[in-house]
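G., the chain you wanted modeled:
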Amino acid sequence: MPKIVVSEDARKLGVFISYTEVMNIVVRPTEGELEEEMKRIEEKYKHINPESLKEDPVVRAYRDFYWKINIDPTKTRPSGEALRRRISRNGKLPRINNVVDIGNLVSADTLVPIGIYDESRFKYPITLRLSNGTENFYGIGKKEPEKVAPNIPILVDSEGIVMHIYPHRDSQLTNVIETTKDVLIVGAGVLGVNNDLVKEATKRVAELLVKYANGKWNEEVSIL
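Predicted structure as tokens:
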């Protein structure tokens, strides 16, 4: 059985994912060369008018997808757009740890939403499917779980943990923590976004985890 399955109802919405795994990473603070890479991305985008983002075809594709699933993208921003706007607003990306920061760096640069999940905290196989309205979601930074609205794409493990509300929110039950060693990287694609862009974003995260988190990677990236 495959590790990841995309359901037919999710496919009909135009979603697709790119994914790979990186093993034996070391989670630590962002510093040194990685910090310099973060600063280069911040410098690249900090003077750009955030209102011009709505003209970007990648941003438009994610916004169109949000409208399709009844999320207002002017209030809940696609994650890549949100990070780019954060740079425009205060010149800085957040600093969490080297692994999370690498995902944010790549997402800000490519506008592709990136999820990184601790493989010790979920069980394969996982499924990208539409919610039925009964699932609980434990969002990062939230004290209480929330019910997921019906017909929202979600990434769910074999035990029913909602790992991700597609394509902008990750769960505190499966996110990267200090003890994380092996991770699944997921690039979130939607109709109108080039498959190669999503695959390249996923690959770039893996390459940076090898470079800045001592990761081991087989250089394989899959598209579903």
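Residues 195-213 form the longest helix (19 residues).

Shout if anything looks off.
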